[in-house]
Write a structure and sequence with these properties.
The structure holds two protein chains of two kinds. Chain A is built from eleven helices and two strands, in the order H-H-E-E-H-H-H-H-H-H-H-H-H. By secondary structure, chain A is an all-alpha fold. Chain A has a single domain, classed as MetI-like fold (Orthogonal Bundle), CATH 1.10.3720. Chain B is mainly alpha-helical. Classes of the chains: A mainly alpha, B mainly alpha.
Amino acid sequence: MGITFLCAFSILAITGYLVWELWVNSAMPRDKFGWSFLKTETWDPVAGDFGALPFIYGTLVTSVLALIIAVPLGVGSAIFLAELAPPLISDALAFMIELLAAVPSVIYGLLGIFILVPVLRVIQPYIKSVLGWTPVFSGPFYGVSLFSAGVVLSVMIVPFIISISREVIRAVPNDQREAALALGATRWETVWDAVLPFARKGIAGSVFLALARSLGETMAVTMVVGNDPKIKASLFAPGYSIAAVIANEFTEATGALYTQSLIELGLVLFGLTIVINAIARLMIAVSERGKL
Amino acid sequence: MTGTLLLWRRKTVNFIMLTVTALCTVLAAGVLVFILGYLFIHGAASLNWNFFTKLPTPVGETGGGMANAIVGSVKLLLIAACVGIPIGFLAGVYLAEFGTGTFAFIVRYVTDLLNGVPSIVMGIFAYTIIVLPQKHFSTWAGGLALGVMMIPIAVRSSEEFLRSVPIALREGAVALGASKAKSIFTVVIPAAKNGILTGVMLNIARVSGETAPLLFTSFSNRYWSEGFNQPTASLPVMIYTYAVAPYDDWHQQAWSAGFVLLTLVLGVNIIARTVLARNQHVAR
């Protein structure tokens, strides 16, 4: 009995130790750059100048883009699976979508490099001819870009949004549906006006959870983002993300300041995902009523 | 007149929106079919026995395989399971059987947060506590990174399966004079055994595809790695390095490795999920 308590306690200890190690091993850049580390745009290992801004920018842009694509798609599918599809088909499709969530990220990266990037090269002139006048889709397109990373991430997070949202929508009491239908509402009006408001917090929780996943996602992004630490307005330009720069440069980092700057980036990423996860868990818990 | 028009409009909106949601589902499920189809056709085509039995050849020479990476992955998962499963399982027992009050609440919450820590950060953690003091990459470090990643899922899945054991079983054991600890270890846990084993399988399948935490812990190795104290190759890292390298032959091998990895991961998932009773929830 004591040993089970010890193991439960060790989870707190491990998490604390993890934060401590990240903190202690990033002391050098913190002393040298202070808060300006987060605001500086240069990343110049040769000169010993390290700023996190291009990576924070790339991480946020790719994740937000992924959400813009994945949220409508995921919530739409969840509505179909929970409200409209016959149970047998719903279960079968939900099973397939759960499997999608189990596919390792390096496999998504592999498909990203060899399928998505060539496909995007073919269709990008069409996107440009329509939206090329905006700064967001301007400039040359090499295939690897913030845009490609966003698309790969969206494919990776859709399963999370679908499977959590489907459960939350299913948990909405049937009275809601029956009342709306009895008043003469169509199926869609029932879903939109009576069911979704009930499930709103849970769906928002699933979106935050998906956001945390995409912020921390490493391999798939590293393989298609282009790995260029610059801030450009165009989504078609190559970029970089926090996780990608750690993955690429950690083993090659020469000198303690370089390595510690990368560890500080890890600390930033850790902080970002912890905050978003905390919000997501709280929202899902509230929507499931007191169950955490 | 306006009434009919309004009704017509409502019905049209209804039809369009319902169709859109169906299309969303078809698109999402279509992605899976496409991924599987492409990998199976492309990966299986270039798969042969050499892949399982030979070492990687030097750069520029075609052929060779990934035998060392397969063994490396098995070794990493062995360490990970030895670290993650006992801690996670016993903590899950605590939460299920004694888990009321603030402490248990905090442990649950922190476990969920630990589950959300990006895998690359776990790599940094293992790097700072093992690689940095030892000054070399090792299988130990990679296995530890994966092991810590296994803890949160092991906790949650064992807690849920233990909780689903009927209260009557516990009461029966206690009524026969068993102590609480005795009833847990001889009655409750055996009753939840299948569920817990399924959880363990899914957990191992999940970390077996992790690449990021291995990049600077177990690193890579083009030869056999002896014991646990040397850098070792692993399947996911090989897929990554071969995919981003500029050689066509390596790309083919990356597809083969991807095929093998995905077959294992999805195979375990399908078996585990169909064995699970329909209504039982799978921790993610």
